[in-house]
Amino acid sequence: MPGAAAAGAKPEEGAFRDLDDDDDEEELATYTASEAAGALVTVYRFAWPYLRVYRKAMLIVVFGLLVETLFNVIMPLSLKFLIDDALGEEDFHALYTILAVLAAAGIVTSIVSIWYERWDAKLSAAAISDVRQMLFEHTQQLSASFFGRTRKGEILARFSVDMAAFEGMIKHVANSALLPLFELIAGILLMLVLNWQLAAISLLVFPITLIGPRIITPKAVTANYDQKVNEASILGVVQENIGAQMVVKAFMLQRRALGWFRLRNDVTRKSIVAATFLSTMVERSVTISVLLLHLVVLALGAYLATKGQITIGTFVTFESAFWEVSYNIAHLMHFIPVTIQAAAATRHMQELLNEPARGADRPGAPDLPRISHDISFERVGFHYEGSEVPVLDGLSLKLEAGKSIAIVGPSGSGKSTLLNLILRLYDPTAGRVTIDGVDTRKVTRESLRRSMAVVFQENMLFNMSIRENIRLGKEDASDAEVEQAARLAEIHNFIRMLPDGYDTIVGERGDTLSGGQRQRIAIARAIIRNPAVLLLDEATSALDQTTEAAINRTLAKIARGRTLISSTHRLTAVTEMDEIVVISEGKVAERGSHAKLLAMGGVYSRLWDDQMHRAHEPADAASDEDDDDDEDDE
Fold it and tell me: Measuring CA to CA, which residue among 585, 433, 459, 455 is closest to residue 511?
């Protein structure tokens, strides 16, 4: 929390690129090379893969826009004929004909507009949904190391702040960008037809209106990107604070947490001021320029009309066309801030999509058969991303199938890392992990994990029924299988006593249940898979000794006929294991039964003596077991 809240704090190191870097500033300048049009191109370059699958809808929308543009050109053009031919000549037949044509065109245009608006709504909703789906799918494929180095708020911002900006543009681009653009082009052509000299003067002055946006837009895009980064950071602060509420309250950190939040909030407030002001100035500079330009055109048109060089009808029509052109320029300028925000948002989302999906299987990777012989570590080395300190250093180890095996060792020795490598949550940086002689990197992850189940120290239950939480271990499991798994986990009787039984909603993260109840449901979720390998990662270390002993007895029953691999720091829970492997300094230090390891007088013996000594200290002198022993060895 403190690091994230410091004023001017950058995004997490290694998570995403930092705007303060010179290379990124140079890249951003290229990114915003052609003002709002460039931002529009950027957004649609991002969105095009999601839009092109809906070609029919796009064609209908474009056709509808062209029909509406044609009608909006006919309207001012009709003024010329009404004034010069119908009213000037008192030709009522011409008057009625013109009005009838306009009425018919208006009805047809209205029908077409409603039709294409419906298709535009479908198109934008589909594109937004597909982008959101792609973001989520890509997130599922990212490696465990990515989530280890990236704050949750950084990821959540892609689905909230950035998606909102992208959605705001996609939903309104047809009526707020394409229609004004078509009408702008049509209006200019109409002005040229009416009086090319006056139109030429108008068009020569129009480039002046682009000076302001050209200067301000790159700064506005930079400011909007800074705003996105800061908003993502503040989401991270909030998420971290919510997750740490027990610590905040226990150590009375509310005032300090408010200070951290206030610092980050002040930085975000300043970035919002800069982004909003610069975005507004882009359109304001155009509005002022158009107003001054219109005064010039009005004076010139009036002068030509008084000299008889153009008719009154032509003057009024030209004036109407000029207003239409000016209005559409202003409309486009109003859309520029939306475009700028969307461009910054798409760049932010693209950074997430550019993150390599290391979870992908090798092309043509075969499935792994159910384990029958052993799991081997062959000179395995491993260090976490961003760290050069090895967690495992040339470790070699063979774990025989069908046995119950405990992995123990001092804190930070790499116990949990071994389990993560077996599950392929990470891949070794050196050496290889094999199952029955097959390198786990050469088979599909799905087949590897299909024959395994894991129970973590803190098991995540989802905000759904107990039945569905257990069924997550095997999606096609019947209700009978769910109940059988609950019986094996010795939680069935408790569930039946609940008012809604198996349909009881457990709440967010399962907070309506006790720690032991959550753990037993997690065990039921694991054993419903009928796994060949059951992995326990500090599965009982967060529980009291009575609950731990009861769950350990349950696990002992469940483990019969399976390979059980348990990573734990509580040695009293492993005395009956078939084999105990002691990890120290990233290598296998010792292995054997409980009695054999005690007789050796080595690392295991010292760990045992230390835990027994602390367990028998007087209550008023003993200190609780260090929470650091529960770490994930990362």
Answer: 459
Q: What is the pLDDT of residue 467?
A: 92
Instruction: Return the pLDDT at 94.
Output: 66
528-550 residues labelled b (16+ CB within 10 A) or e (exposed): bbebbbbbbbbbbbbbeeebbee
CA dist., res. 575 & res. 572, Å (int): 6
Helix (H, G, I), strand (E, B) or coil at 439: strand
From CA 1, how far away is CA 13, in angstroms rounded? 15
- What are the boundaries of each domain within the chain? 2-354
Q: Name the strand (E) or helix (H) holding 296.
A: helix 254-306
pLDDT < 70 positions in the chain: 1-38, 79-95, 98, 204-206, 208-210, 246-247, 249-252, 283, 358-360, 386, 541-544, 615-634
Cα-only R_g, the chain: 35
Q: What is the pLDDT of residue 85?
A: 61
Tally of CB atoms within 10 A around 168: 17
- Could you give the C-alpha distances from 456 to 453, 497, 541, in angstroms and in order? 10, 26, 10
3-state secondary structure 106-169: HHHHHHHHHHHHHHHHHHHHHHHHHHHHHHHHHHHHCCHHHHHHCCHHHHHHHHHHHHHHHHHH
Provide the terminal-to-terminal Cα distance of the chain, rounded to the nearest Å.
19
List Cβ<8 Å contacts ≥24 apart for 136-141: 138/352, 138/353, 138/355, 138/357, 139/352, 140/359, 141/357, 141/359, 141/360
Residues 6+ apart with CB under 8 A from 453: 473, 525, 526, 527, 529, 531, 533, 534, 535
- Helix, strand, coil fractions of the chain, as percent rounded to 5: 65, 10, 25
Q: How far apart are CA 244 and CA 256, in angstroms?
A: 13
Which residues touch 393 (CB under 8 Å, ≥6 apart)? 381, 585, 586, 587
Right CATH for 2-354 from 3.40.50.2000, 1.20.1560.10, 3.40.50.2300, 3.40.50.40? 1.20.1560.10
Q: In this structure, what token pair is assigned to residue 108? A: 């047809």
d(CA 249, CA 245): 6
Taking alpha carbons only, the member of 289, 294, 282, 269 closest to residue 337 is: 282
